[in-house]
Fold these 2 entries.
Entry 1:
Amino acid sequence: MKKFCFFILILMLLSCNGKNSQQKDNTFIVDSLAIYKADSIAVYIADSIAIFKADSIAAYIADSIAIFKADSIAVHIADSLAQIFPKERATHVVELFQVQIGANDFNLSTFGNPLDIHIYIKENGRTISSVTPLYLYGTRGERILSKPIVWVVNFNPEKNYQIVVTEESIIAATNTWAIPETPKIGYWPFGFNGGKLYFGKDSYLLFRDKVAK
């Protein structure tokens, strides 16, 4: 826009001749420069407003996204805390349905066979009886249990809960793992990480947790 106006101005100046027209030419030049300046200022203002609006919109969107993220994170944290530190007493049905038993975390018998594994849930150090057998037989690795191990737990926020995984053997060396390692009052481990609890180097237990109605 600016280059085009300046080009027209030059053409008009070149078309003006003669001493008698000098005054008119001067007047024309002044008027033309004024128009050119006015057009340039108008374009500059319009461009500036457009840039300002774009920056303002971008800043508004960025602020809105930041607020949304902050709110989402706060809600997520609050929900997570409510799941791992429930405030109300309730009867929970807990099911262990998938496991990964790492070969580096457990031992073999003197004959080279995988040791049987027992899984317990403890409340204040006392074992809670399971509804189904609590043994894991067979090879190491990841698998879905054909028969989930089930517990019914009457949760009390004034007590602590812990999962204990241990091998059974009279002769061979055995390992024992506790989740969490140090029990905490009111902490409900099955509400953490969607019930997928890692331990050792490459092992995990995956639980379902439902509140009985």
Entry 2:
Amino acid sequence: MAEKKDSATNDELILNILTKADVFTPEGGIKPSEYWAYRENVRIKYGLPECADKWDFPVSYIQKIEQLAKENKIEIRPKHEFQLFFEENKAGALTSKSVFRDNTIIAEQHQPDDWWALRARANQLSHEIVHALQNIMFPGMPDHIAEQEAYAYQQFNPGEIIYKSYSPEDIASWVNKTIPEWVATSLAVDNKLNQHDKIDE
């Protein structure tokens, strides 16, 4: 009962923050509260764990994603095993620390006692696991929709929303400017990487 109560309280807090941010939505833009509903639909659709604590408790989050990947027969392998691929695709390598190709999530490796590397890996997995599940459940999904879903889940999580709650205007800008810019950049990188059918190890 306590866990459900805490969850309900947290949902109420998030909606309160986003309702305040809605008034700063640019004309023709997306209200943060509506974007939150979209993000939650993405999370539920793919059966994803909440990633709000990926910065504070990266080990726990990484374990959840590794288990989810295992259940769906998705490989997770370290980036250094595919050095040739990233060297041949420097545009992608320079802007992307991780990638999903050929039913494999490729992410930076980490040491168990390297706190920053653990956080980086958790963040990378929170994006690439969406692409991996999209590939299984909705093969052929248009790239722009795939990136929109991945960034919504990865970036617009409760932890980030609460962190930015001091500035409702920034939240509205985040939804309507910052995240779309990340999506556009990622699409440009993917277009270059997609020129290669396979990843060479």
